[in-house]
Amino acid sequence: MKASTVRRVGSRLASLFASLLIALSLAFLLGRLSGDPTATILGPLAPPEQREALRHELGLDLPLVVQYFDYLRGILTGDLGQSLQFYQSNTSMIADRLPYTLQLVAAGMGLAVCVGVPLGVLAATREGTWWDRAASTVALLGQSVPVFWFGMMLVVLFAVKLGWLPAGQSGTPKHLILPALTMSVYPMAHIARLTRASMSEALAEPYIDSARARGLGNRRVVWRHAFANAMMPILTIVVLQTGILLSGAVAVEYVYSWPGLGQLALQAIQFRDFPLVQAIVVFGALVFVLLNLVVDVLHSIVDPRVR
Amino acid sequence: MTGVSQLELDPTAAGTPPRRPGRRARTSVFWLSLPLAVVSVGVFVLPLTGLLPAAGQDLAATRQPPAFLPGGTWAHPLGTDKLGQDVLTQFVTAGRLTIVIGLVGALVAIGPGTLLGVLAGYFRGWVDRVISVLIDAQLALPFILVALAIIANRGSSLPVLFLVLALTGWAVCARVTRSATMAIRERQFVFGLRAAGASEPRIVFRHILPNLAGTTVALGTLQVGTAILVESALSFLGLGVVPPMNSWGSMLASGQDELSQAWWIAFFPGLAITLLVLLVNLLGDALLTHHDPRKARR
Amino acid sequence: MTEAVQKGVPGEAARRPRAPEPETPVLVVDDLVVEHRDRGTGQVFRAVDHVSLRIDAGESVAVVGESGSGKTTLAMAATALGPRGGGDIRLLGHSLSEISRTRLRRLRPEVQVVFQDPHGSLDPRQSVRSGLRELRTLQPERTSWIGDAELLGSVRLAPELLDRYPHQLSGGQAQRVCIARALLMRPRLIVADEPTSGLDVSVQADVLALLRQIRATTGAALLMISHDLAVVRSLCDVVHVMYRGRVVESGPCEQVFVTPENDYTRELLAAMPGARWRSRR
């Protein structure tokens, strides 16, 4: 039993590591094989000597294999290179911006869970009713709307027309309301749909009937028995969505001029700061794989069968 | 025991042939496709009818609100932008590109995704291992990161956009196709064909692929919605469709600067994207439950 | 209608047995071992455990056992359709461990399989006619001996069914189509893997009668896989009883049924409907 556990954890870790390595290699290759960045950085009219100099500065004149191992060594030592535009280490710039994005993601995800889970439970406990249909439609709508557009319309309504809330920038809790609301739309919809699905599955199990037969109250049956069993997929999706939000908040941050990682990435692209873009991509991949690991650990804690 | 029952011989009284499920699913597919077809044809036909307000600038009529708001006129049903260009006309022409990108973007993701999924699911072994690791790795990179990495190097253009859409879409499709293929290839008729001397390519192309068609169409439909959303986000950030071309996403980009003075520029394309993607998602879900080979018992 | 059926009786349609070489057995299974590995736990499960059997030309052999006893794995290995495992299998004198891919493909039509689930054995996207057409393109010479309508008649199906799709056929009809597809190849060995257990009881008897008739008229050997002893007794000469991957008892059918030597065989016989009546006899 124990040997098989070690084996399983080991193979899972190995496959996570393999997908991380491939993701990192992919990021590297996408950067190198999709063309000579110096042409994009300097423009097509730049003299060849200047491009040669930049290529040397970026280390692009070295053999590809050498570049690749330099890149991997950098990631291992936490050195993601130098920004071309800001003349700073990419790692420290990411560290500067990360708190803002974390704040936004935490607020958005909190909201998404607080609304999405009850919405899904509501739909599942009243399956087939008008409530269910309304909740399911709202959830599907949330997955179909371009979230940044939803944010723009919130700005028009609450900042421009009503003047209740600030339209952009950060600082006070008031500044956080609209961006967090916008951020929560997609994960909220996802969580609601998933909660509905796994709850209605759990509610159909025989142990729910037996709990009801024992005379337990409806609320207790729904939350203590059904929800406890439906929780694992929901928890999984919360963690994975967090990973997507952490790196995918670009458009929302842009709408609200929020000074997070997404804005930094956008600036980097606009100024053709190619090492910085790569650093952000690598960081995102690391975070995402780490969160996958968290999901695995959660599974083994919650689900006794996996252990 | 000796006689053959009459029931078996009479093709009209064929016992109880299993009924095909999903008559309701089929009608809902019809009602969902109808508006999609109308919109898609509409954006291509409308400009030819001459009914739309003329394109071009009109500095005497800048930032006019839509007709149904105070100050609006029917000369510009959806209002005008800061240069006096008609929003409805822009909206219709931009819709063409959006729909084309949605369709082509889905195709470039579904094509390689289906092929790799079938290869992995059918041949298993090292082919499967390599492709599965690639799928996992692709899914470990959030799409926006892939997009950033490519666009940072290649700039924005339509081919780059399609490359991004292909890279971000193939993995999901490959994963679903792989498991569907694994289910089909264990069906007994595949063994029967092998016993009849059919070659492996023949089984894959003549039998596995046709049986996957329903799933692939459903996945492709869902992928159209994803492609439109990805395109709108990238174009909004100035990383997808850039002027002089125009899509609903790039209309949102120009509307962003005008939010306080002319919100309608961004409102209508955004609403159109939402409704279009909603319809496509509903259609894809309906098709998927209809065609799921694991659900179909026979 | 009746006339078509009369005309289509296998006796006429399929009476062209090619001279079987009496000395080479159709199938020899020699000390076969097949193991499955559970991907999750890594545990190895031995599905077939040192099994040997032999089928001569025109002979009818049964493998009997409860579900999970390894019968189907044995059949799949013996027909080169499933994992081959250890030991040797000789099909019509060719050892499967030595045969080349091309030769194997040429050999394959000699052995046809009829499966348990008739609907799963037909491509749901192919009508009966186009399925037969495909078989004819795969094996043009082998299949030219009979027309589509006549072939369906030989399994007592009306030619109108040619344009039906599998989901438009009843279970019994679909199983007859499967048998017809097997017959079309004029195989020297037909492997029937629980051919009646997916069917309604009323249809089972008809399909068995059909198999018996085919055996009598085509001279093909039959390997019958079943858990149903009654089926086997009415159809086969020799029976092998399998239990947990091993053959626990073998012998001529009547001998095994009347004087079983193994405890497990006795249990199986006792579980048969009408067993008491039989044992009293």
Automatic annotation (TrEMBL), chain A:
The lineage of its organism: Bacteria, Bacillati, Actinomycetota, Actinomycetes, Micromonosporales. Residues 98-299 form the ABC transmembrane type-1 domain. SUPFAM superfamilies: MetI-like. Pfam families: BPD_transp_1 (PF00528), BPD_transp_1_N (PF19300). It is found in: Cell membrane. Gene3D superfamilies: MetI-like. This is Peptide/nickel transport system permease protein. CDD domains: TM_PBP2 (cd06261). It is a multi-pass membrane protein. It comes from the Bacteria. The chain crosses the membrane at residues 100-124, 145-164, 176-194, 234-256, 276-298.
Automatic annotation (TrEMBL), chain B:
It holds the Pfam family BPD_transp_1. SUPFAM superfamilies: MetI-like. GO terms for cellular component: plasma membrane. Residues 1-23 are annotated as: Disordered. Gene3D superfamilies: MetI-like. It is found in: Cell membrane. It comes from the Bacteria. One of its GO terms (biological process) is transmembrane transport. It is a multi-pass membrane protein. Keywords: Cell membrane, Membrane, Transmembrane, Transmembrane helix, Transport. The chain crosses the membrane at residues 29-49, 97-123, 130-152, 158-177, 212-242, 262-288. PROSITE patterns: ABC_TM1. This is Peptide/nickel transport system permease protein. It comes from Micromonospora haikouensis.
Automatic annotation (TrEMBL), chain C:
Residues 27-269 form the ABC transporter domain. It holds the Pfam family ABC_tran. GO terms for molecular function: ATP binding; ATP hydrolysis activity. InterPro entries: AAA+_ATPase, ABC_transp_ATP-bind, ABC_transporter-like_ATP-bd, ABC_transporter-like_CS, P-loop_NTPase. The keyword Secreted does not apply. CDD domains: ABC_NikE_OppD_transporters. SMART domains: AAA (SM00382). Keywords: ATP-binding, Nucleotide-binding, Transport. The keyword Transit peptide does not apply. PROSITE patterns: ABC_TRANSPORTER_1, ABC_TRANSPORTER_2. GO terms for biological process: transmembrane transport. Residues 1-23 are annotated as: Disordered. Belongs to the ABC transporter superfamily. This is Peptide/nickel transport system ATP-binding protein. It comes from Micromonospora haikouensis.
